[in-house]
Q: What sequence folds into this?
């Protein structure tokens, strides 16, 4: 075999030479391992309930809901069919696909149906998705690429699902990592600082309790008792405890005015005093919430109302940053759907290897056209 023949065979080989490569563990985990508990999918589920996390994710998803793709090249009939299938997938299942970034990857079982009418009557087409929790799935790979997943189903043996019945979406999959990287992992440090023991939320709560309840001082004579109208006697300690309960419930308190032989009060009450310094605690929590937005790649200027000026003035650059972030997310979703659903299904329906390209439209251009503003849309 000549040199050029061997070179041609090497270049056209579909199996990567570096298929056995495995990504090393991220250095960031080792840097913060003394401060943070390890991030996992259970933590990701907890983070979803944070209002700040939900607002940030909602802002990202909102930018993507109007996303569009273009299918070009190859047989026009096949390209038209692929375009129709993508539009159906995005219109019915985008809310499921966009959950991928929460965990880094998302396994879905794809359900199909036979087209009953129209240009492609009789063809197998997309119907809907059955998304499954990543915690119960293990990905199946071939030559470093996901080809399906194995899913735990109760006490039964794991079920293996392969493409095109299986769709495996990833987020920020770098260096051949089939499991991707969860977007919530980036927001984990500020979220943990917010909710951990001694964090911003609990410190703020303790501060409010301090100002509302704690700090009362009751002075009572320990060697005296009070005779009730019923004839029973009770200690001043019990009476003071009832006063504390009345204070906690917001009820009114009555204290007898009693003096000893030297004119000193036997019963006295000192209300709690403001300890000061509340503003830094509120500012601490606000700074953490801003860090969460930034970790989710949503600049605060995109969400928060402007404190000066009006309209979109001065926000075009932060908005472009947010669009760039979600464009990368969209491109990875399109690649996964094309790999696991569109191309296998097109080959099944039309009997030949489809030759087309599918590309997401630029969100920057889409929003610029929507605002009738060229370029950056400022």
A:
């Amino acid at each position: 075999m000549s040199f050029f023949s061997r070179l041609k065979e090497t270049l056209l080989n579909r199996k990567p030479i570096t298929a056995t490569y495995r990504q090393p563990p991220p250095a960031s985990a080792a840097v913060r391992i003394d401060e943070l508990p390890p991030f996992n999918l259970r933590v990701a589920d907890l983070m979803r309930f944070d209002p700040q996390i939900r607002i940030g994710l909602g802002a990202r998803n909102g930018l993507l809901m109007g996303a569009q793709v273009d299918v070009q090249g190859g047989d026009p009939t096949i390209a038209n069919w692929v375009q129709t299938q993508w539009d159906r997938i995005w219109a019915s299942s985008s809310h499921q696909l966009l959950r991928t970034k929460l965990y880094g990857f998302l396994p879905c079982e794809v359900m199909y149906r036979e087209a009953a009418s129209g240009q492609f009557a009789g063809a197998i087409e997309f119907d809907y998705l059955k998304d499954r929790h990543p915690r119960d799935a293990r990905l199946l790979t071939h030559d470093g690429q996901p080809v399906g997943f194995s899913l735990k189903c109760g006490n039964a043996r794991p079920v293996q699902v392969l493409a095109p019945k299986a769709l495996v979406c990833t987020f920020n999959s770098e260096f051949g990592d089939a499991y991707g990287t969860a977007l919530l992992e980036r927001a984990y440090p500020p979220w943990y600082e917010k909710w951990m023991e001694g964090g911003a939320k609990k410190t703020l709560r303790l501060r409010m309790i301090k100002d509302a309840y704690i700090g009362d001082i009751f002075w009572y004579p320990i060697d005296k008792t009070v005779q009730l109208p019923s004839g029973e006697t009770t200690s001043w300690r019990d009476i003071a405890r009832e006063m504390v309960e009345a204070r906690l419930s917001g009820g009114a308190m009555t204290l007898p005015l009693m003096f000893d032989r030297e004119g000193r009060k036997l019963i006295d009450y000192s209300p709690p005093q403001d300890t000061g310094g509340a503003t830094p605690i509120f500012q601490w929590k606000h700074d953490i919430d801003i860090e969460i937005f930034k970790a989710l790649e949503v600049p605060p200027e995109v969400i928060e109302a402007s404190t000066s000026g009006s309209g979109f003035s001065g926000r075009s650059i932060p908005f472009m940053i947010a669009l760039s972030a979600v464009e990368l997310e969209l491109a990875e979703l399109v690649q996964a759907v094309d790999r696991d659903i569109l191309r296998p299904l097109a080959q099944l329906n039309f009997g030949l290897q489809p030759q087309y390209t599918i590309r997401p439209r630029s969100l920057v251009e889409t929003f610029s056209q929507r605002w009738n503003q060229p370029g950056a849309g400022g």
Confidence is low (pLDDT under 50) at residues 374-378.
